[in-house]
Amino acid sequence: MKKFHVFLDLNDEEDWINAIQERGYRLDWVNPYLHCYAFQKLANTDQFSPYTRLDFRDRGMNRRHYQDYRQLFSDSGWRLIAGSRHGGIQYFQQRTVASDRDIFSDERSRGRSRRRFARFSLYYAVFLLSYVFFYWQTTDNLNFFDIKSWYLTPGLWQMPSELFWKAIVFETPFALMRVGVFYVFLIVGLYNLGRAIHSGYRWQG
After folding, report:
1. Do 24 and 45 touch, CB atoms closer than 8 A?
2. DSSP 90-115
3. What's the DSSP call for residue 139?
4. Cα separations (Å) of 89 from 10, 43, 83, 179, 204?
5. Residue 79: which of 26, 1, 19 has the closest Cα?
6. Which of 61, 57, 93, 56 shows the shortest CA–CA distance to 76?
7. CA atoms of 121 and 118, how far apart (whole Å)
8. 52 and 18 in contact (C-beta within 8 Å)?
9. What confidence tens digit (pLDDT) does each residue in 64-110 have?
10. pTM for this prediction
11. Domain check: are 23 and 89 in the same one?
């Protein structure tokens, strides 16, 4: 079973994953960038239904340190489902029912992980939205909120119907390339700003 879901908070994502697992599924694969999740149906109701917990690293680690990081969790009964030594969300899942149900020793440790997530999201949002503002201010003769300005063919909007549609079909891919980066950065920047605000408010202090 594959699902797509977008979250503003790591705890909300964690709760959603575990709610599905409690219905008799196990998380097998995650793409945190595309927000895609793959769950496998358990063979029977008596099969162990694990918990999944999320940690966040805002800095990369070399291979040895990342191996030590993974081994620390493995020794406590957790295996890595998805994650990278370059940072980002790390998805850990219980190996056995005897494993603790949480990877954090206390709420302070959990809070530090969530605040790292909020800070990283804010930095990323500032970078992307700064690019959007710079691109907007330095691009002449292009209004990102006026579709007609995306097209450069002279007299396009006064052409006869048959020629107009041929020209539209031909030039639209180029028009989308001219404005595509702007809208991708705008959407992703606003999304990260929302994550920073939501997570920062929840885990302030």
Report:
1. yes
2. EEEEESSTTS-S-S-SSHHHHHHHHH
3. -
4. 9, 29, 6, 30, 19
5. 26
6. 93
7. 5
8. yes
9. 999 999 999 998 899 999 999 999 999 999 988 878 888 988 888 88
10. 0.82
11. yes
How many domains are there within the chain? 2
Instruction: State whether 89 and 171 are in the same domain.
Output: no
85: exposed, middle or buried (C-beta count within 10 Å: 0-12, 13-18, 19+)?
Answer: middle
Smallest Cα–Cα separation from 123: which of 196, 183, 185?
Answer: 196
**Rounded Cα–Cα distance for residues 75 and 26 (Å):** 21
Query: Which of the listed residues 52, 84, 103 is the one where a domain comes to its end?
Result: 103
Tokens of 63: 């291979």
Residue (of 133, 154, 155, 130) closest to 144 by Cα position: 133
* pLDDT tens digit sequence for 141-178: 777 888 888 888 888 888 888 888 888 888 888 888 88
